[in-house]
Amino acid sequence: MVYTINPDRNIPWNGLPDLPIDDSLFKTVEIYEHLANAKVALGKLQGRSIAIPNQGMLINSISLQEAKASSAIENIFTTDDELYKAFCEQPEEIIQGAPKEILRYREALWQGYDYLKDKDAFDEQYIQLIYQQVNQTNDGIRPVVAQTYIRQGGTGPNAGKAVYTPPRGLGIIEKKLQNLLQYLNDDKKYKVDAVLKMAIGHFQFEAIHPFRDGNGRTGRIFNIHYLTKKGLLDYPILFLSKYIMDNKDDYYSSLMGVTQRGDWKTWIIYMLKAVEVTSNLTYHKINDIIAAKDAILQAIISKTKISRPESLVNTIFTQPFSRVKYFTEQKLYAENTAKKYLTQLVQMGILERRTMQGNHYYLNLELYRILAD
Question: What per-residue confidence (pLDDT) applies to 245?
Fold first, then answer.
């Protein structure tokens, strides 16, 4: 069956076909080979992550990197130092610029995850929740008056020209969103593997482009939540945006390949490869973090008289930067004791003390290195 493509990229694609797509567009040997690889890698990641007692170690570190990479796709950049410093500040302290944008993404990742715990299915309220958190807005579904176009970037001769115009009109976006949600939620009627559904659904969401801005970040959070909701991951720790960022041009050209040529094969294989590669990447990062944590714990036990070393190490591995107040607020140590112990770890080469804007931070050098790779 031939997929109905976008006839004119300069006018709203109100003829965007509803889901499901025809089986012939994705039920091929090549796609199923890539699906098998993706599922194996995803299963290995899930098996490793559930064996870790300190989930906060992964939740904070991996999800923050996902937030950074997804934001970078939208040309929102910051350094690791700026991001980690912002992350360890108190909520009432002022955070501005790119770090604030990235932390909004991470917050949306966890707000959506918590929202879905009490839900049987995805709904429009979930999608708006993610969008509003990412953009810090009360805005909702894009109204008819919003003249939204996807334009060619860069400085070449085609820069600024429309490459795609999403659907527009009274009730059209809402209708297409409901079709997407029904497809993703109803596994009895639409018997398609969850990873394939995620890939198909991600294209559909980006093609609907339901909001004025933030559709890319909202859609990428949606991807991870779909995998967790379907039981393929316990926590939203898949570093999926890393692959998209590293292969950004292919991401956009594959999306356009569906709208302009009906090329679902290239798009689906791209997304399956993203799952496979980033599952393996996240798996190896988890192993490296655990190995570093164990090595540091043994060094502290054998070379110091620090009390409650396990709790100390768990705290410094919860995020790259630590502060004295983390230990006092947990009632783990008194302030002077915490300072003494952190200074010992600096002398051992485990931590590096940094002073920024008058505050002292202690950087976990191994965790920092692992996350930066």
Answer: 87
